[in-house]
Each structure stands twice: as structure tokens, then as C-alpha cells.
Amino acid sequence: MSDTFETEKAQTSQWFETLRDQIVTAFVGMENADHDGPTSHLPAGQFERTQTRRSAGDGSDAGGGLMSVMRGGRVFEKVGVNTSTVFGELGEAAQKSMAARGVPGMSQDPRFWASGISLVAHMQNPHAPAVHMNTRMFWTPHAWWFGGGSDLNPCIEYDEDTAHFHATQKEHLDKHDTDLYPKLKEWADEYFFIPHRGRARGVGGIFMDDRCTGDWAADFALTQDIGRAFLPAYMPLIEARHKQTWTDADKDTQLIHRGLYAEYNLVYDRGTKFGLTTGHDANAVLMSLPPMAKWT
Question: Are 233 and 151 contacting, i.e. CB atoms less than 8 angstroms apart?
Fold first, then answer.
């Protein structure tokens, strides 16, 4: 394996793009198939795709990605499925952050490379849960690691939906190590907790960060299976819920819960902070925010 990881980087970024295309195709298919739901009178949602570019301090190319966003669909009120591959040199604050996480030598050689997929879906129907999924790889000359996961964010909770979401993730993780699911579930419970509200932002899922066992192929395979778990974990829930009728009170509950989601993403989310501090397209970074929210 080369010091620059060029082959591994290419395989990783290609996988994230492949996963993006699979998810986009599935979501468009659901939009087109909804002919009798509460919002079936709306035009079937389609994704708008926008190339994003990132420039280094001297104006040179520093990577970018593709922002795929659907707004105002029959099933999805707003969903974004973004991929990016960025590179360059970390600023002083980011170098210190890396050093605090145990990455050596960043002040001597601050180069980095990062690629990932980020997805957030906000639904028309308050009974259909919102969801987040993100997986990524980060490389420096001194270390590499994978991170990410997925978590379910219903405003109206159904125990059977939560059980299915978690069981599907466990099934995909158990093939790697049966100790992984409980570890990554606990990590998600801790990571997606909102201290100033004293509660979780949803019903959890799985999450990992700084995943580097020394076996790149094994860690990449695990990251792929986290991505592969997403559609079978989530799509049956949307198929079951998106045609249910709802009340004004249900919609109010949804909008208040979205406020909670927005608070987390703006105050605590590490990916949001990294994207904004490294100069990535702000619209792509903040794609996760809901189209409408409410605070009491």
C-alpha cells in the first residue's frame, strides 16, 4: 500500500458515488409510485444536481462534489444526498484539533484528503421518520480512518419501526464482528445526544469515528456494509407510513421535532463544523437543515 493511498482513495470515492446513485434511484422510484397518498396530487419529486467546488487559499483546485437535492416531492419534503472529495492543507485550528485526537505530525505536514456521502431526508408525512446517513474516509500523511453511520429521527415514534431499523443494521454488522453493533449503537446514543435539551435527537442507530484497525480493506468493507444497510433499514418504514393520514397536531409535532434536529446540526455536528471551517460549499454543508421547522 502506497504512502499516498491513491488506489484506496479512488476506490473509496467511487463507492460513495455508487451508493449515492443507488439511493437516489430508490427515492425517485418511490416518488413516481405514489399515486394515492395524502400528497399524491403534487408532482413527483426529482433531484436537482449541482456541482460544488472548493478552492484553496491560493485559489487552486481543492476538490468538490455533487449536491443532489429533492424539494417538495410527494413523499419527501426535502432530501439531500451529497458526495464530496476534498483535499488540501488543514489550517492551524484544524491541525490542533487533529493533534488533540491523537494524529501526529500535522504541523509539519498538514495535507489532508477526505471523501464521503451525506444524506438527510425530511418527509412530508409526520408519521414517516426523518433519517440521516453519513460515511466517510479521512487521510493525512500520518494516519487514515473511516467514520459515519445512520440514525433514525421520527417525530412520531413507532416501536416496530425502530426495531426494524436497528435489526437491519445489526444484521449487516454481525458479518464483520458480533461485538460491533452494540458498540456502534452505544456510540450513536452518545454522539446524537443534545446536552442542552437533555435528550437524544431521535431513536438512534449506529455511529463510528476514527475507525482504523490497520487493515484498510476490512475497514472499507465495514464502511460499505454500513452504507448497504441503509435502504433495507429505511425504505420499508417509508413504504409503511407515507400514506397514513395526519392531523394539524401531527404536523405541529413534526415541525417542533425538526427544530430539535436543526439545533443539533448547527451546534454539535462535527461534519457541519468541518465543512464550514475548511471552506466547502455552505449550501452543501447545510443541506441537512429542514425546509420548515418550529420552536415553541
Answer: no
